[in-house]
Amino acid sequence: MPKLWNETIEAHRRAVRDAILTTTAELAAEHGVRSVTMSQIAGQVGIGRATLYKYFPDVEAILLAWHDHQVSEHLEQLAEIRDRTVGAGAQLEAVLRAFAHISRHSRGHHGNELSAFLHRDKRIVQAEQQLHEMIRDLLAEGAQAGDFRDDVAPDELATYCLHALAAATTLPSDAATDRLVTVTLSGLRTMHPGPEHPFSPHQHDHGPRHSGH
């Protein structure tokens, strides 16, 4: 049947393309971006060079396509985590925790040269903006519900979250990553200073002092 035949061909092409993306990223992480050749990729995937060139013009194009796929997949994952969680406060915690762990594990698999190359990808700016907006909206909703502080604009707090959790890429363990998320979240909570709070305006209001003379 023509339809089944076309679906089979398309599935094969997707499988080959996925194999090209994964193989190229692994080779670049292991040997460096400049060391990877199209011949090497074709040999590892098990296709001819001519076939490889039908999919991509060069190694950089493959790596950018791989990165674009990874970023899109991560954004979808974070959106799914948000949607299956109830309440802005719980949603934000789940999203930030997942983002921190994704950041840590992704950086660990890239290698320095590959990471530097991927950071030049202009599409990452758009993805970061989407993530920023997701976090900002949850913060705004949480502030209205009293879950998060409202003395700082949600847009600024979203920037704070992303910058704070960028440190996850250098952490040694998942436990350390969870602690970083906990500390970051603590900065978002609504503060209610009591009478003994050091910045309470009533703390020093004890009436006139006597010199004792």
Question: Would you kindly provide a written description of the structure presented here, covering whatever features stand out?
Answer:
This protein is mainly alpha-helical and 213 residues long. It has helices at residues 2-31, 38-45, 49-55, 59-83, 88-110, 112-118, 123-144, 154-165, 174-186. Helix 1 (2-31) crosses helix 4 (59-83) and helix 8 (154-165) packs antiparallel against helix 9 (174-186). It is elongated and about 60 Å long. Residues 193-213 have low confidence and may be disordered.
Radius of gyration: 25 Å
Tell me the number of helical segments per DSSP (H or I, 4 or more residues long). 9
Number of self-contained structural domains: 2
Main beta sheet: none
Name of the CATH first level of the largest domain: Mainly Alpha
Indicate the proportion of strand residues. Answer: under 5%
CATH superfamily of the largest domain: Tetracycline Repressor, domain 2
Ranges where pLDDT stays below 50 over 5 or more residues in a row are: 193-213
Computed structural class: mainly alpha
Q: What best-fitting shape do the alpha-carbon axes yield?
A: elongated
* CATH topology category name of the largest domain: Tetracycline Repressor, domain 2
How many DSSP E strands? 0
- Average pLDDT works out at 85
